[in-house]
Write a structure and sequence with these properties.
0% strand; repeat; EF_hand_pair_protein_CML-like; EF_hand_dom
């Protein structure tokens, strides 16, 4: 299993890549663009992923929320890391 520091570094790299405008949060549009880049273009999937990752419901994904998602879905995040 990858160590915690590497997992956190991977999440930070993914977050910075997805946070296109650099405001420290990933919007629905940014998530949509990122998922499209990874091969998914369904708006329903984008909305479903946003609801799944955005735990506080503010309409944005924070780095901490992405890190929590990674911990809960390590295999899915490994795929994302490989594609980036």
């Amino acid at each position: 299993m990858a160590d915690e520091a590497q997992i956190k570094a991977d999440c930070e790299r993914i977050f910075k890549r997805f946070d296109a405008n650099g405001d420290g949060k990933i919007s629905l549009a940014e998530l949509g663009n990122a998922l499209k880049e990874l091969g998914s273009s369904s708006q329903d999937e984008v909305k479903r992923r946003m609801a799944e990752i955005d735990l506080d419901g503010d309409g944005f994904i924070s780095l901490e929320e992405l890190f929590d998602f990674q911990r809960a879905n390590p295999d899915l995040m490994k795929i994302v890391v490989k594609k980036l």
